[in-house]
Amino acid sequence: MEHMIRLRVNGRDFNTPVAKGERLIHVLRDRLGLTGTRYGCGAEMCGACVVRVGARLAFSCSLDVNDLGDEEITTVEGLGSAATLHPVQQALLDHQAGQCGYCLSGIIVTAAHLLSANAAPTRDQTIAALDCHLCRCGAHLRIIAAVEAAAATLREQSK
C-alpha cells in the first residue's frame, strides 16, 4: 500500500507516492527521474548509490525513504549543471578519472561532501573518505588526483 511523502531533493520539493520499506534509490530513480544515482550492489559494498542526506552521506540502496523526515537530499544532479560543473566534476574530467563512469556519481557526492567539510584534506583523508567506493575500472589513483585538484580549485575560489 502506498502513501504520499514529501521529499526535498536538490533544493526542490517533491510529493510522491511511496510504499512501506521502499528504498531511497528507487524513489530517486523511478519516481523522481533522478537517474544519476546508480544502483550497484544493493548491499552498501560499492558506493555507487551514495547521496548526501542532511549533513551525512548515506547509501540510498539500503535507506528506507520513510525514515528520512525533513532532511535535504543531495544527489549528483544537485551539485552542478551542464553549464557550470562542480569543481569535483570538472577535475574528474580534466584528469580523465572516469572510464565506465558507473561509480562516479557516488564518488562525486562523497568528494564534494569531504571538500565542503575540509578544504585541504591530506591524501590519506581523501583515500579514507573514498574507501567505501569500488571503481571496477581501477581508476582510483586518477580519482584521488582529481579530488586533490578540486580541493585546490575550491581553495583558490574561496580567496
Describe the fold and architecture.
The structure is a single chain. This protein is of the alpha+beta class. It is 35% helix and 17% strand. It is built from 5 helices and 5 strands. It has helices at residues 24-31, 87-94, 104-117, 123-129, 140-157; strands spanning 2-9, 12-19, 50-53, 56-59, 72-74. It has a 5-stranded mixed β-sheet with strand order 2-1-5-3-4, with helices on both faces. Strand 1 and strand 2 form a beta hairpin. Helix 2 (87-94) packs across helix 5 (140-157). It is globular. The mean pLDDT is 96.
Provide a compact summary of the structure.
With 159 residues, the chain is an alpha+beta fold.
Write the layout of secondary structure elements.
Elements: E1 2-9, E2 12-19, H1 24-31, E3 50-53, E4 56-59, E5 72-74, H2 87-94, H3 104-117, H4 123-129, H5 140-157
Parallel strand pairs: 1-5
Antiparallel strand pairs: 1-2, 3-4, 3-5
Helix pairs in contact: 2-5
